[in-house]
Every structure is written in C-alpha cells, then in structure tokens.
Amino acid sequence: MKRILAFSLLAATIVASCASTSTGTPQASGSSPTGQHLKIGLVTDIGGLNDKSFNSLADQGRQQAQAQLLVVTSVTESKQQADYVPNLTKYAQDKNDLVIGVGFLMQNAIWKVATQFPNVKFAIIDGAPTDDAGAVKNLPNVANLFFKEQEAGYIVGVIAATMAKNKVGAAIHNTVCSMGGLPIPPVDRYIAGYQDAVKTVSPTTKILNGYSQDFVDQQKGIEIGKSHIAQGCDILFQVAGGSGLGYIQAAKAAGVYAIGVDADQAAVAPGTVITSALKKVDVAVFQTIRSVRLGTFKAGDNSFNATNDGIGFGTVDAIVPADAKAAATQALADIASGKITPKDTVQVK
Asked: What pLDDT score was predicted for residue 52?
C-alpha cells in the first residue's frame, strides 16, 4: 500500500511539472507552493509566437513565471484581430486569475471582456481599456503595462548616429533609417527616440522612415528595406514584428546593418544586426503575474523604463566601435538619472 501511495505521489509530481505551450486549445501545468492553483492566460496579437520579438517575449515571461512561481499558465495565438475578444473571453470564462492581452491593438477587446468579467484580473501590454468610441476607460480589474520605448530607441540611435557620422564599416552614406509596422504610439515612440538621438549626436546624418502597414508580412519589410537602401541607408532600425524580420533580411542581402527591436535579435542575422532596442516585455509579464500571486496587483498605469530595468539595448556586434558602445551605455545611465529625456514624437515622417 505504501509503495502504491508513493508511486501515485511521484506520478502526480511529474504531471504537475510538465511545461505548457498552446496555440489553440490551452494546456496548463504547475501549481503554487500553497496548493492554490493560480491560472494565467496569455493571448498574443496577430504577430504570433514566432515573431522573435514582442509576442515571443511575452510568452517567455509566461514560461518564466510558470517555472519560478509554479502557477498554471496557457497561451493562445490570435490569427486575426477578430480573434481577440473570443480568445480573451475563453480564458475569463475558464476562471483564470489573470488574463493578459499582448498589444495596443487589443485595447477595445480588453475593455469589452474586462467589463463583462469584473471579478477576473486583466493586463494589457502597450495599452489601456478603450471603449467603442475610442476613449480610454481605466478599469479596477485591468493593469495597463506601458513602456518608454523612446528610451530604448534613443540608446540604439546613439550607436547608429556614431557609426554613420564616423563612416564605420559599411555605413558610408551617413544615412540611417527606420521602419514601423503601423504608426501607433508604441511603434512611434521607438522611432521618435531613435531620431532624437541621431539629430543630437550627428545633425548632418540623413534620416528616412517608413511603415510596412503590417506586423506579419516579411515581404513588405523587404520591399521597404530595399527602397531605403537604394536611397543610401546603411543602418535600418525595424519596429515591425514579423514584417521587420524582412527589413533585416533586406539589410543582410545588401551587406549593410540592421537594428533589432523588443528582444535581442542578434541571432536573427549575425554580422548584420549590430544591436537591438530592448523592451523587456518578459519582465513586465513576469512581474504582473507575480503581483497577482502576492496580492499586490495594481490596476491602471504601470510603467517600465530605464529606472526599473524595463528597457535597454542588446548584444553589440564586433563592428560597433568601443566609443559608440560606451556612448550608448552612458546614454542609458543619463536617461535613468533624468539627465536625458528622449523625445516621444516622430520628427521625420
């Protein structure tokens, strides 16, 4: 009898330790040490889990929470914007303790679902609940997770401007570029900070900007990348999710440089991606899940920035001179101290 009981306990432990990843029907595992199983559901935007950026980072935060906090977690991918409401609703109906929506485009969906389920906690990355008229309606059960993307954009802009000004490597035309997916606030803040740094560090450097109008289609990113390169661009900063991977691909094909976004994208194109503007979505997701577990969940605006390790810059390629890297490190410190306040409005459209 004792052997049977021991075997049963071992089997239960093995089942409870299994990891969870779902792209349709959520699967879950893990539990809190207290025996109370907090359930967490994560809904991606249309960029999907393989964007090597925004959604991928959010899912990393979910997985870290599952491993370290022993909560039950699931993730569901949205294939189109029409999926947002049903995906969020499914998790709320399943009585998850926290439902996380990834992305600005989910603002209205979060408002609709959170108002219907006032006893369920929600969080939205890069946005706040917005009603059908487009007005922000903060709710007592929704945490708005905002980032100061302009700070990360400024830091990588310092590297780009220094290389362009000094004509380092393939950066011979003193021209730098950026491409957003859509001209929405989280995207434009990145670009605004990038442009601000370039204008500050190297006023003579030419700046080009464009939008793929898409966060998925890589071919659109390739075409804009080719256009920018044809106009002399040597350093391309992508803020476009999956579409941005095409922008990086265009830089690689032309033998020029690219800058990644959100996650450290050095591995996407080694030798092409000189650094990345980091937006630590994984940190925000992990900390928000932990706040629910600890009973410290804060509805309304929550900010992630240079002062709380919410932004930064990624791996710096060997082609980047020591002075450019040092300048970026100093810029990060100056932003954190308040000495530098990057602009958050795009200057070159």
From this structure: 85
Query: Which residue(s) pair with 39 in the sheet?
Result: 72
Report how far residue 240's alpha carbon sits from residue 243's, in angstroms, rounded to the nearest whole number: 5
Task: Tell me how far apart the 2 most distant CA atoms of the chain are, in Å.
Answer: 81
Closest CA to 76 of 41, 50, 117: 41
Contact partners, residue 205, CB within 8 Å, separation at least 6: 161, 164, 165, 174, 175, 176, 198, 199
Is the distance from CB of 188 to CB of 126 less than 8 angstroms?
Answer: no
Provide the pLDDT for residue 36.
Answer: 66
Secondary structure (3-state) at 134: coil
Locate 219 and state its tokens.
């071919």
Report which residue type is found at 192.
A
> Would you state the structure tokens that stand for residue 34, as one six-digit string?
């207290």
Q: Residue for token digits 């969906």?
A: 109
Q: Which domains does the chain have, with CATH numbers?
A: 22-148+281-307 (3.40.50.2300), 149-279+311-337 (3.40.50.2300)
Low-confidence ranges of the chain (pLDDT < 50): 1-35
**pTM for the model:** 0.86
293-345: pLDDT as tens digits: 999 999 999 999 999 999 999 999 999 999 999 999 999 999 999 999 999 99
At 50 the pLDDT is 86
Burial group, residue 30, by CB count within 10 angstroms (0-12, 13-18, 19+):
buried
Q: At residue 262, what is the residue type?
A: D
Spatial CA neighbour of 245 closest among 194, 189, 181: 181
Please list the alpha-helical segments (H only) found in 202-321.
218-230, 241-254, 281-294
